[in-house]
Amino acid sequence: MKSHLSALAIAATLSVSAIALSGTAQAGATFDGVKQKGYVQCGVNLGLYGFSSPDDKGKWSGLDVDMCRAVAAAMFGDAEKVKYTPLSAQQRLPALQSGEIDLLARNTTRTLTRDTANGLNFAPTNYFDGQGFMVSAKLGLKSAKQLNGATVCVLPGTTTEQNVSDYFRANKMTFKPVVIEKNEELNKAFFAGRCDALTSDASQLAAIRAAEVQNPNDYVILPELISKEPLSPAVRQGDEEWMNLVTWAFYAMVQAEEKGLTSETVDAAMTSPDPDVKRLLGVTAGNGKALGVEENWAYAIIKQVGNYAQSYERNVGSGSKLKMPRGQNALYTEGGLMYAPPMK
Amino acid sequence: MSKHSSADQAPIPTAPVPPAHWAASYEEEPTQASAPPQPNGMTALKPFGWAKDNLFNTPLNTALTVACLFLLWLVVPPMANWLLLNASWSGSSEACREAAGACWSVIVVKHRLIFFGTYPYDEQWRPFLACALFVAMLGASGVRAFWRPWLAVAWTLTLVGMGVLMWGGVAGLTYVPNDRWGGLPITLMLSVFSIALAFPLSILLALGRQSSLPAIRTFCVGFIEAMRGVPLVSVLFMASVMFPLFLPEGVTVDKLLRALAGMTLFTAAYLAEAVRGGLQAIPKGQYEAADALGLSYWQKTMLIVLPQALRIVIPPIVNQFISAFKDTSLVTIVGLYDLLTAATVATTDPEWRPYFAEVYVFAGLMFWIFCFSMSRYSQWLERLANRYTRR
């Protein structure tokens, strides 16, 4: 009997170590699955202008869509090898958990619960959103700290309203709220001059401004954001190789901006003497092997998708209808939060 | 009635070659069956007399007529101004800001997105052709002269043709996976296929519910009550979100197929109850007479019971069809691009966002066209089916 048990124990140990071995010998299920089927199945928003929405010709574009394309470029050297799964807000997490999609890039706020209990892993934030203030340019304001005594248009009963009063209290300022139930009427009241400032998520403010105002420069979104909405791409837990690839695909775009590489200049940069650029572009080999992809993975991203600044300006920034300032999404060297760890 | 005697003597319509004047004569019949017929030209000839008799005959009616005219005067001119006279029909969003009325340019700019969603732009003639073919076949199937065996062949060819057009991959057409389909084709296919599949299923369920075999009866009752007990949104959600969680990782059933299955089962449960109403309306004597003739269960059902039962329940069945057609807009919850979702997405573009009302009016018009056609067709079908009965 005893020998039986020990035999069982040995068998169990062996099989466990076999699993462990196979785990190190090959990449995770998602990574291999994606490689095998030849495309990235990417969960996106049904339609959120600037982040992911089909254009007049039905072609997907947006900041989140560029994230999908960057991962495809890193994996296959071809940013077009993406299939998009439009997802409703309720659907997005189960779709990732069930394996229907490989990557969720759908303006999803990173939170502790989602990261743990929901079984997700979040890649670096590709857009820092948060509640902001929009004011008329005529007021000449530069900061939300100058809003003392202002009338503020706000939707009732939302966290938006609470955030405003917390912010003013914390900064020892006062404000008069103008609370209006409906979005359209709230916007109308603001543009009619009933309040000095309109508050909502910054990306939302930019969309309202683009829709309602003839000349977007007549209104300014103040740089302070008073709540945190870090929108981040997510993957399933349990496949570190895939997580690594998504993470570093994004960092490569940021790193490219730091180094001044754009989709136009990246070819010329192949001969750059800068060791960081050489490593990034795969001239000095190593990064690709570590990630399990071709050495020119970052080159493919920069060439086909562009660096982070290009993607930002094209989709939500000055090159788009939204005209959002970089704000928190600028590089750390310019007062923002975008920062790529060393890529070596 | 002498005019119709040839039709009255004709056998029940399993039948060959209907004379061309049939359809027209059925339409006249209900008027003759109901009270004294009104000579057709009367309203045109004597409008004042008619108005006096019907609109101003009592003080109350006069007051109501005046009130209604006033309301119309309040509503119609501004509406016409907005819809047509002051509307902007083409050009940029700037031109729309100037115009006081509706901005139909948004439809001009976005109609391809609304109709075909994310289908590759250069290939959008394919879903267009597929939809045209589909609608034409649906229309043709409604015409009695075409109710022949070759219609089934034509349908098979049409479905194959649609598949080839939509998917491609053969005959030089590029392959378009169905996750890129959207807009009108999705709405049409989901509704028509779910109705077409649900209808036979519902008859089986209704028969099963009346079965004397306890196992079959329990199953049918259980299924119908379970489906009717939950909203369609949760059925779709289960089919689309929960179902894949039970499958092993990597195994996925196509999203469109899952939504179609969910809608079919849901519609079948509701239709089954409508059909059951028809089955229960058939007098007991009919069943007994069939039994007395020694017909088997299926002979009795197919020859005696169903033809009569289905005729009775045409209105509730069509009601369910129309409801199913409109319900397709709920598939947005599972991320499918039906007509309404595509329209909504078209309004997210900041440049055109102020003109969402126009887009929704347009989408509403599309739905109305299909639903209204179905309803008119059902009225014609009802008259056709009931031409030998006077109830």
Q: What does this molecule look like?
A:
The complex is a heterodimer of chains A (344) and B (391). By secondary structure, chain A is α/β, with parallel strands linked by helices. Chain A has two domains: 29-128 and 230-334, Periplasmic binding protein-like II (D-Maltodextrin-Binding Protein, domain 2, 3-Layer(aba) Sandwich), CATH 3.40.190.10; 131-226, D-Maltodextrin-Binding Protein, domain 2 (3-Layer(aba) Sandwich), CATH 3.40.190. Chain A contains 13 helices and 14 strands. Chain A has helices at 2-25, 29-37, 63-76, 92-97, 112-115, 159-170, 183-191, 202-212, 240-258, 275-281, 287-291, 297-304, 308-315, and strands spanning 40-45, 53-54, 60-61, 82-87, 103-104, 120-122, 127-129, 131-136, 150-154, 175-179, 197-201, 219-221, 229-231, 234-236. In chain A, the strands form five sheets. A five-stranded mixed beta sheet of chain A has the order 10-9-11-8-12, with helices on both faces. A three-stranded parallel beta sheet of chain A has the order 4-1-5. In chain A, a hairpin with a 5-residue loop joins β2 and β3. The longest helix of chain A is centred in the N-terminal third of the chain and has 24 residues, at 2-25. Chain A is globular and about 60 Å long. With 391 residues, chain B is an all-alpha fold. Chain B is 69% helix and 0% strand. The A-B interface holds A 29, 33, 46-49, 53-60, 83-88, 90-91, 94-95, 97-100, 207, 210-212, 214, 321-322 and B 94, 97, 109-110, 112-113, 116-121, 124, 177, 179-180, 182, 237, 240-242, 244-245, 247, 249-250, 252, 255, 332-337, 341, 344-345, 348-351, 353-354.
